[in-house]
Amino acid sequence: MAEVQTRTDAGEMTQIFVEFVMMQAQNTALCLGQITDPRVGQPQVNIPLAKMFIDQLAVIQAKTAGNLLPDEQKVIDSALEQMEAAFVHVVARTEGYHPGESLAPEDDAPEASPEASAPAVEAPAAEAPAPAPAPEAPQPEESRKRFSKSYGA
User: What are the start and end residues of every segment in region (Disordered) (predicted)?
Assistant: First the structure.
């Protein structure tokens, strides 16, 4: 009979939380044209979708206030700060400068490649997963780890 998993390690939950925040930041960066869209081979800007991802990060930050470990708090704070700054920068470049916004003058600076300006949010060193190995030959099915979770009793 299958065993139902009733608890999750704190370390595993931290890792999942950090991965979730990083995924939201990466989606934001993709929508802000900081990452090349793999579907079309060039950066694409979708400001409303980027705003939605940033708003979701802000909600997660607000709803988890006081309940995060210091490393988790640092990751979400950093991701949100970087994505908000990138959003303001992209909006200013695509829609023009709006009075009242303080933006550093970067018009004289050469454009960096989209990948170079991707978010630099990093997972805590103790929780960082090992880099994935380069794809080689497929592994036999029995050597792969299998994980299962139950979200009900």
Answer: 98-153
